[in-house]
Amino acid sequence: MGSLIRYITAGESHGQALVVILEGIPSGVRLRADYINRELKRRQIGYGRGGRMQIEKDKVKILSGIRQGKTLGSPIALLIPNLDWENWDKVMAVEKKDEEIPFLTHPRPGHADLAGGIKYGFYDLRNVLERASARETAARVAAGAVCRKVLEEFDIYLYSRVIRIGRERDESEWNLIFDRYPLIEKSVLRCGDREAEERMKRLIDEAKKRGDTLGGVFEVVAMGLPVGLGDYIQWDLKLDARLAMALMSIQAIVGVEIGLGFETAKRFGSEVQDEIFYQKEKGFYRKTNNCGGIEGGMSNGEPLVVRAAMKPLSTLAKPLSSVDVVSKKKVKAAKERSDVCAVPAASVIGEAVVGIEIARAMREKFSGDSLAEMKRNYLSYQDYVRKRS
Ligand code: EPS
After folding, report:
1. Considering its fold, how many domains does the chain have in total?
2. Mean pLDDT, the chain, as a whole number?
3. Is residue 46 in a domain?
């Protein structure tokens, strides 16, 4: 995609640390570790998580790219130590030790275990699951926090909430997210409806009792996007396509919709398209936002509304049938300590990856090596937009 902002993560779930290198952040952005840590903490909260979150207290170590509190424009390297590493140092040792480590040979249906083992030629499926684990998303949230800081410089703000856990739903419209945000941020399920939250919690308790897991749906809303992020001229520049890829790349995400999404397929065009109005003070505007802030692969100035569906986690305390990859005998799938439900965490991760995509599109549109240069370009574009409206 040739974008100026790009990132790559490294790290195993029970290895020493997670690492992310983020490139393309302009110089001159004020950034403190505390700001990143706040986002890391938000990702760790959530009803239905397992024992691991009692162990990890995610804190970032900024290794490069920031000096005297401001970004340098050079690659930003961030490290998040895994506190659980001390319990896994033998199993996950870099050097081969004399002690034999038993192989994990029972792939979990729905996990990367079997396809990954066949692909990389492993009979110890731990080699797959350690990297396939959603622990990796802590690194993405750290990168997302940096991008979020850039976006705040342009008055772009991100929100998220959980609207479904299994069969239980919060039916409220997306635009209630702002009024309910204090409640959402305090909720253990990131749900803005207390009654729905209680039902969701009961369902999670029931799943836990049964040794089962649950998925759900979260919604991310971004406010303040200028018109014209993304592009209509080429498939891989379209903002909706890029957001879908970013969200689908989160572990266990199986579907993404923008605005009314799948619901639009059931309606007439006249019930779906957002009519255009104009007022001298306001410029162009809409009274509805069924398209979720994106038309023709570009932001249209309305709030961005995206939702993602997460499948139930594949590590079950009461495991399903599987086959041993060595003996080929019928077995029960591997039973690792895990979460019952991680949709609230996914919702914070969703904010992060959406933030990264918006920051990338902003850097493309308002190209500049420094924040000041980006801001100048942004302001001159605002002048242009105002003159036209
Ligand atoms: C995960 C399994 C669990 C989760 C983990 C993701 O870890 P463990 O196997 O150590 O109990 O807690 O998520 C995190 C560690 C995290 O930071 O989100 C998995 O298999 O994907």
Report:
1. 1
2. 96
3. no
Question: Taking residues 378-388, what's their average pLDDT?
Answer: 82
Q: What token pair was written down for 171?
A: 């039916």
Ligand 1 neighbour 338 (Cβ under 6 A)? yes
* Two structure tokens written together for 384: 């242009």
Cα(92)–Cα(133) distance, rounded to whole angstroms?
A: 14
Q: Which two tokens stand for residue 1?
A: 């995609």
> Beta-carbon neighbour count of residue 330 at 10 Å?
9
Q: How far is the CA of 19 from the centre of ligand 1 (A)?
A: 16
In a domain? residue 165: yes
Within 8 A by CB and 6+ apart from 227, the residues are 298, 299, 300, 301, 385
Q: Which domain holds residue 317?
A: 104-388
> Does 67 map to a domain?
no
Q: Is the pTM of this model over 0.90?
A: yes
Q: Which of 58, 135, 136, 213 to mutate to test the pocket of ligand 1 (most atoms within 8 A of CB)?
A: 135
Share of the chain above pLDDT 90, in %: 93
Percent residues over pLDDT 70 in the chain: 98
β-pairing, 298-299 vs 294-295, is: antiparallel
Decide: 110 in ligand 1 pocket, CB within 6 A: no
Question: At residue 70, what are phi and psi to the nearest 5 degrees?
Answer: -135, 150
Is position 159 within any domain?
A: yes
Instruction: Give the domain CATH number at 226.
Output: 3.60.150.10
Spatial neighbors of 355 by CB under 8 A, at least 6 apart, are 144, 147, 148, 151, 158, 222
Which single residue is written with the structure tokens 């039973």?
335
pLDDT for 1 equals: 44
* Cβ of 81 below 6 Å from ligand 1: no
Cα(109)–Cα(123) distance, rounded to whole angstroms?
A: 16
Q: How far is the CA of 38 from the centre of ligand 1 (A)?
A: 19
Please give the single-letter amino acid code of residue 285. Answer: Y
Protein residue with least CA distance to atom 14, ligand 1: 135
pLDDT band for 384, please (50, 70, 90 cuts).
confident
Token duo for residue 32:
């403190």
Judge if the beta carbon of residue 50 lies within 6 A of ligand 1: yes
Place of tokens 């130590």: 81
Atom of ligand 1 nearest to the CA of 53: 12
